[in-house]
Known about the structure:
The chain is an alpha+beta fold and 755 residues long. Helices cover 55% and strands 9% of the residues. Strands 1, 2, 3, 4, 5, 6 and 7 form a seven-stranded mixed sheet that branches. A hairpin with a 2-residue loop joins strand 8 (338-339) and strand 9. It is globular. The N and C termini lie far apart (107 Å).
Amino acid sequence: MPLATLIGRWAMQPFSKALPPLGDTERAALEAGTVGFEGQLFAGRPDFDALTAAGPNQLSAREEAFLSNEVPALCRMLDDHAIDQARDLPPEVWRFLREKRFFGMIIPEAFGGLGFGHFAHASVVARIASVNVATAVTVMVPNSLGPAELLLRYGTDAQKDHYLPRLADGRELPCFGLTSPYAGSDAAAIPDRGVLVECEFQGRRTRGFLVDFDKRYITLAPVATVVGLAFHAIDESRPEGHRELGITCALIPVPHEGMEIGRRHRPMDSAFMNGPIRGRQVFVPMDWVIGGEPQVGQGWRMLMECLAAGRAISLPALGSAMQQTALYVSNAYGQIREQFGLPVGKFHAVAGLVAQMSAQLYATDAARRFTAAALDNGERPSVASAILKVQLTEAGRRAVNHGMDILGGKGIISGPSNLLGVAYRQAPIAITVEGANILTRALIVFGQGAVRCHPHVLDEMAAVQAKDETALGQALIAHGKHVARNLWHSLFGAPVLGDPPEALAAEARLIARMSAKYALTADLAMGLLGGKLKRMELLSARLGDVLAHLYLASACVWRFRVDAAPELLPFAQAAIRLQLDEAGKILRDLYANLPTPGRRLLGALVLRRTAHLAPLRDVQLMALAELLRTRPEVVARLVPDLAEPGPGGLRDLMQAMALGAQLGDETAALNKVLRRTRSLDEAARSATDPALALAYLQAADKVIQVDDFEGPARNADGTVADLNRAPAAQQPAPSGQPPSARPPERTTPPRVPAT
Length: 755
């Protein structure tokens, strides 16, 4: 008897008990999408030639023209504060979005859409989000998981011909109802039911479903003209136990009998439209099922296949935009704002934060762009998409938090001049939607990654399910060799496969070594804990996080190769070191928490020779901060999606920085005179170009000021007139005047008289 068969026979029973059972929904999720470079990292064998084979991001002439014309024109229409206060986009913005077909970016030209690739699509969303998140969300929803993508992939010809042109030009505005009050992250458990019936509809007998549903958190629902709906289809004519047909997706026009668009939700009081949808005995003809009757029961597979790509586009673009805006604001404000006679950006506490923000941004945006290149090459990396969704939305929130710390009082005063307050309030939204990050880390990044990305686990599961002893034995022999190789590489060093850039050769060796240690650790965790690991989310989330940090570090190598920007080498090196340091910390924490005897010995053995994975030293952080302060072209390379907005604090900051760049080194001397004279005019007269100097000082003063609003009325003696009276509507100071009616801060306190 062959050795493989003997091993398989011996292992069949224990493996049948140890391997977690797979339900239909889990199987559909696992089978959705493809495996890319993240699979090589999981195997402990990253090939840097395969990494760079993805090539650079490409834009067509039409895409470049749209990004150079329509997108900047839109961004200049967006007043972040005004939109936030109105809780809606202005009518002219809605009209512009329709006329320029922003809602049809993913729809092919043959159907009247723009037919953009994934990178162009993501770039449009990121640039809009850099100035106004609500508009970006409004644009991204019709172009992400929803009717358009589902129709393109699964719709009938009649459905495509009817809906796609109308979605492309904005005659139809879609939303998609998946989440229910009792089924959030566990979306497959939606309680919404549709029973197969035949009834009179539009004058003839028609087969379809009578659906009861209750959906919430549905973006664009209050303004939608067509609702995409997911529900469980049921055929009560079938025998007991065979009546469930599976999750089904359909399109329902608005209005439709029995369906109600509910009152509006206000996620963190944001301006984008969101609300509930309910239906009672809503008849859905079979022709309204996406793909028609053959696709009844295939909805979960359809959604998972769309999410395999969609998670990598919209929300990561939103997170990247938050990072880019926060970095620009923090770095620029740090140069304009002075305390103790120095720009606050030169204080090490501030400079260190800004430097870390830049290194984090280099890594996360590298991963976003690398995955977009893979998508444009035809891949659909489901695990990498989940990594991006988690890592970039979390990085966006961290960057905005750091920016708020740096802005201090300027950051917390609401009004037209505020720089990050709206983004700070809205950051948790991206963390929550399309799978809450707290569960995505464990259930998707590692839960699916352990099966999809591991070179042998899927073969073992298939062999156990098929009761094939020989196949199981062959998979186990290959698995054993895999573990032995990664043990050797963990202890004695891993080879570098491929040809990474020479400037990052040392970092590539570190990635290869850490990848081997991660692969061995994942096998140890799965081997020691078996199916229990699936329920131990704290451990599986850590394993998912390490894979994510390795993916981001590897993407930095790709980015440095394709960018051909040697001036960004310090940022690439810092970004990789930060990611690997974080991966090492998480692995040490994981071994400390393994519920097995000898965990400390295991950890010490596997993680030996990782002491060099130290965080960036202060001197390295200060060097990065100095580059950001003195090399505006470097900042521009790091924030390529930052757009020029409409009126408000961000545009004021950009104008002040542009004037400061014209003054050059003279700004330091100018500010010194200003501190002495406390007069903008007098300080400007000391400059080589007084007119330019005065323009800069006025622009800088405008950046430093904050907004104030009408308070309660006072009597002639200064007492408050009536505290019980309802306050007047809050309005900012009239345009054309400084936001604050008080004197500029730099003219107070009054000059101390000479004695």
